[in-house]
Specification:
The chain has about 100 residues and is α+β, with helices and mostly antiparallel strands. The protein contains four helices and three strands.
Length: about 100
C-alpha cells in the first residue's frame, strides 16, 4: 500500500455521495480499475481510479444526457480531485408507477 491509498475513492463512498446528492431510484457503482492496470492514470494498487456508474430515476429521465453527466460530475468533483481518473456514466430507465 502506498501512502495515498486511503485517499482513493471506493465504490461505497461514490455510491453514498450519489445517493445523498441525486437520490437515484437505481444505482450501481463498479470499480473497473483492475482492468486498466498499467495504463496512464491507473494506481499501482489496481483500485480506485476507474469506475462505472449506472443510475436512473424519474427526475433524471427528464434531463438530457449532458445534464445527467454534469450532475454526476458535480457530485463527485472532490473524488476526481483525489485520483478518480476515469468515470463511465450510464443512465438506466427505471420503471415506476408514474411511467408504466
Amino acid at each position: 500500500m502506498t501512502p495515498d491509498d486511503d485517499l482513493l475513492p471506493t465504490t461505497e463512498a461514490i455510491a453514498q455521495r450519489l445517493r445523498e446528492r441525486l437520490a437515484p431510484a437505481f444505482l450501481e457503482v463498479l470499480d473497473e480499475s483492475a482492468a486498466h492496470a498499467g495504463h496512464v492514470g491507473a494506481h499501482p494498487s489496481g483500485r480506485g481510479t476507474h469506475f462505472r456508474v449506472r443510475l436512473g430515476g424519474d427526475a433524471m429521465a427528464r434531463l438530457t444526457r449532458v445534464q445527467r453527466h454534469r450532475l454526476v460530475y458535480d457530485a463527485l468533483q472532490d473524488f476526481l480531485n483525489q485520483g478518480l481518473h476515469a468515470l463511465a456514466i450510464e443512465f438506466v430507465p427505471v420503471l415506476t408507477e408514474s411511467n408504466t
